[in-house]
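Fold this sequence, please.
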Amino acid sequence: MKQEVESKDPPVDAVSARCMACGSDSPRHVLDIDDAFSLVRCGACGLVATSPPVPPAEIGRYYPPSYYGENNRRFNAPLERLIPFFRDRRGQAIEKFVPKGSILDVGCGRGILPALMRERGWEAQGLEFSETAARHARDELGLPIFVGDFLRSPYADDSFDTIVLWHVLEHVPDPVAMIRRAHQILRPGGLLVIAVPNFESLQARWTGRHWFHLDVPRHYHHFGLGVLRRLLTSNGFSILDVSHLSLEYNPYGWIQSLLNKLGFRYNLLYDLLKNRSARSLPDPLRAAPVQILLTLGALPVIAPMSFGLTLLEVLLRRGGTVEVYARCDK
């Protein structure tokens, strides 16, 4: 399979911004995504970024209502029923590192995790970036939700025992500022939980621009574990644990990435798994009937293969997504 190829000299139009992690202006071209976007790697610290980055004032147009789905329900009913199960596993993982206390879920969506943690005896709050995304958590679940920028959130220093940035860090233009803000409002010894797609994974390297978890341009940055470790340790955190096993994300990451790599319509299966309000194709059966049949025909081969590849990723410590648990040192 084709892997990413790093050239010595980036195209002029790929060099659009200084590295948000270290300030270097020495990016190197990594991978072309399409005619509009590519990936560049900082020559100093290794952080990979989308180039050109979409200005924050314009990124909203890449999050249409279909991105969230009606009432923040993105998937078909059978898959929606699995979400509380995975959130419960997330809560159990958190409680391995810290006792019950106060928790903030940044990018909390419908509020399933903070609601669950509240049931487990935590003082739970959430943060969302839009009123649409926050509505269910605030109005239906009665959770305290701040709507707005995490960097400008009203929380006082040393407010929380745990902060969760679950597939959030890649969506923000300044990940270093996010980590520093988390350090500021965590109590000494508090826990920071981060999950991100792993650009050093086998999925990323073997499927290149077809990798399901790239999600350009919504993802401003693409983290390898080494870069993420350095960002955390240089901003007041100690790494407690790293997990490369995610049954929620990694097997499906392989399935969709391999289908994309084989030339099927991009993320077609993912679209089929969504409910109508979240689909990019309003009527996929009419729009791509042959592609759907071919996709379904390939699944009996690709699905079992994906679980084998997921196990291989774990053994090699190259999971498609990684979870990092870090202690706040003050």
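Residues 63-200+219-245+322-328 form a domain with the Rossmann fold fold (CATH 3.40.50.150). The chain has three domains: 12-51, 63-200+219-245+322-328, 252-311.
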